[in-house]
Specification:
Number of helices: 16
Shape: globular
Structural class: alpha/beta
CATH topology of the domain at 6-42 and 210-290 and 400-452: FAD/NAD(P)-binding domain
Radius of gyration: 23 Å
CATH architecture of the domain at 6-42 and 210-290 and 400-452: 3-Layer(bba) Sandwich
Number of strands: 20
Helix content: 25-40%
Mean pLDDT: 94
Distance between the termini: 24 Å
Length: 453
Amino acid sequence: MGTPDVIIIGAGPAGLSAAAALSRGGLEPLVLEKAARHGGSLLTLREAGYIAEGGPNSLMLEKDGVEDFFRSFGLVPQEASASAKKRFLVNRGRLVAAPSGPLSAITTPLLSLRGKLRILAEPFSRRAPEGVDESVADFVARRLGRETAVRLVDPMVSGIYAGDIHRLSLRSAFPRLKEMEELHGSLLKAGLRKGRAAPVRRIVNFPGGMRDITDTLAGFLGRERVATGARITSITQGPEGAWRVEWLDPQGAPQRAAAPRLILATPPWAWKEMPLPAPLSSLLSDWETLEAPPITVVSLGFNRADVGHALDGFGALAPGIEGRNLLGLLFQSSLFPDRAPEGRVLMTCFIGGTRAPHLARLDDAGLRALALAEVSTLVNARGGPEFFRATRWERAIPQYNIGHSARLAALDEAEHRFAGLHFTGNYRAGVALPKTIHHAMQTAATILSKAKG
């Protein structure tokens, strides 16, 4: 390829989405990836008739342009079965259907009468002091009561962030809840109004698994635009504003490229090891302390006759108060039946997070024993699985803890001070995969607009 218009460091979902959007818009991107493969967190395992995910297991589509983006590259989403609407929570060692909205929270057996009455009193709850970066736990306890925080919200947060509701910032992690309080004065009132015109959301995967996304985008870009196994040795910005990047290819041969724009699409914990200009490294120093706990994804395949539970739902989440050794359990083959061979079922356990990081670091034997103990109790799985795979992520999901907004402000300042510099990834606009891809699309749109202007 010729001289690139944009250099992108990181070939995960964010980097490849930005690159594909830029290329479609007429600019020439070059993507550099340290790992030997592209795809980042999207890791689909295809073996013995099973299609298991080592990272994100599905994504939720809204009307934000992400689906249109996929389809423009020939990616046709596979919609989850109707059972995806049903969710379970672990309650005293058993799976109980989770509330689907404000009204069902009043009738759920998951809460005591006192807890339900506290929810009904939510419209009369006091507001937080102005300007306070409130934790999720404090917000929910203030508006809905501690029981709701512990029994309903804690597992939901574990399912999204694998995090701690006492440390996560409401403003950063769940800005819509903050907005509901500010605009309507009550979550119940906002929820009832939203229910009349609820946005259409669909849970999807792809025929070949989640890795179809990055494989398709990388295939569109071509090998000349996506360099894997690239060990970056220098990143500088010249006096004229051009970004110069030097790296070693897999054979150790030095390579270099220059472009007026640079996108960092790597996880923030990778920045410390990158040879960034000293003033930029100084601006980003607070990101070095970003919490991102380890998570291990354990996939288990069983004979259907060996699992007593109907597996008639999306899966189950476990509140911390239950003391389980897993964050959640996903019924993958119930959502997408082709994920397991005929007569088999595929389940996915998520282990670790801020709740129990040491469990994520167990060896295969320990993880297998732990996962089997959990599924035998929760869904009455008998015997051993015929399929077992563990995928470890030493640093998995970035935590939007209290003070995260200050980190985001540092990114804004860096983009302002260093011409042509952009940041995109799940640390910025939301950890959900669609949010990550949407932000990458917006980043590309901003660059295209400036280039054409």
